[in-house]
Specification:
This protein is 75% helix and 2% strand. By secondary structure, the chain is mainly α. The protein has one domain: Arp2/3 complex 21 kDa subunit ARPC3, CATH 1.10.1760. The two termini are 18 Å apart.
Length: 169
């Protein structure tokens, strides 16, 4: 599945950057609240990463990086989720996602399911290794691969649909 779509690389001195970041952070606040209504919804669907992927891929790594840092931090401060003890690992994965998505978009200049799948697997594999180093517990570190596969698939297919259909221009 490949569609022509406009991709951007917004700069930190562009007001559009902060508008986009605000919208994506809002999405990354609202979506987890919805999924947390489902038992184990957060750890199954990984909603905190969704708009980080979309923002970084569509508008560049700078938008992604701001979204990646602000989303989990604001969510933790306002709602206590993610738990502060989990915040370093989630921030690591979120930042990796933003960087990998932004770089993939800049390199490939198109949106395909295969590229998004590669981005999601890359941030999850590298992030899992980092989480293992942070927590010292391999079983906890591989939680996204044990429980969060539906969330990874949502990121790939939902991200593709969002970028190609909702944010086409």
């Amino acid at each position: 599945m490949e569609t022509t779509v406009k991709l951007y690389s917004l700069a930190y001195n562009d007001a559009k950057t902060y508008l986009a970041v605000s919208l994506f952070v809002f999405g990354n606040i609202a979506l987890p609240q919805i999924f947390h209504l489902i038992p184990q919804g957060g750890i199954t669907w990984l909603p905190i990463y969704f708009f980080t992927l979309v923002g970084a891929y569509k508008y560049g790594w700078k938008v992604g990086l701001l979204t990646a840092v602000l989303s989990p931090t604001v969510n933790s401060f306002l709602f206590g989720m993610p738990l502060p003890v989990s915040l370093p690992a989630i921030l690591l994965k979120s930042v990796l996602l933003a960087l990998f998505a932004g770089l993939a978009a800049a390199h490939f200049r198109k949106v395909t399911v295969w590229v998004l799948l590669s981005v999601v697997l890359a941030y999850q594999i590298v992030g899992t290794l980092g989480e293992w180093a942070l927590k010292g517990d391999f079983y906890l570190a591989v939680q996204d691969f044990r429980i969060g596969v539906p969330g990874m698939l949502l990121q790939v297919f939902g991200g593709w649909a969002c970028i190609n259909k909702l944010l086409k221009n």
